[in-house]
Amino acid sequence: MEIGACNTIDRGTLGATRIGQGVKTDNQVHIAHNVEIGEHTLIVAQVGIAGSATIGSHVIIAGKAGVSGHLKVGGHVIIAGKAGVSGHLKVGDHSIVGPCAGVSTSVEEGSIVSGAPCLWSGPSRNCNPDNGHPEPPSKCTCGVGFGAQADLVCQ
User: Fold this and answer.
1) Of 60, 91, 147, 152, which is most buried with the most CB atoms under 10 A?
2) What is the pLDDT of residues 77-136, one digit of tens each?
3) Long-range pairs for 92-98 at CB < 8 Å and ≥24 separation?
4) What domains are defined for the chain?
């Protein structure tokens, strides 16, 4: 385990705060009480992980991303810079959360959630185009499974 400068790791209140073998944190990372982080996870600068969150193994959480408490992030997940994952949800294994994405619903295994700003790039099963224009991105699901053609793309 390698811990960067100016990190805060809170001790558990109701249980233990656990950081797995091979975890690396960059500088200025906050890991709250009762958080569990799986093996070989990489946490980049200025990430905040709220209390009682569970992070799987082989996860990458990029700079300035935030993970709310009491949720589960599966293994082999990438959470891009400035993304926010909130609420009581699960981010499935082998998923990618794009830069600046706000995730407030569960993400199925093997999904890609693109970040903002999203631009419409073609017909979408998730958006209802009106005269060739999509609904505002806030009403669209900016996520597709691996191997599927992207409905919305991040610029």
Assistant:
1) 91
2) 888 888 888 866 677 777 878 777 777 777 878 777 776 654 433 334 444 444 444 444
3) 93/56, 94/146, 98/142, 98/154
4) 1-110 (2.160.10.10), 114-155 (no CATH)
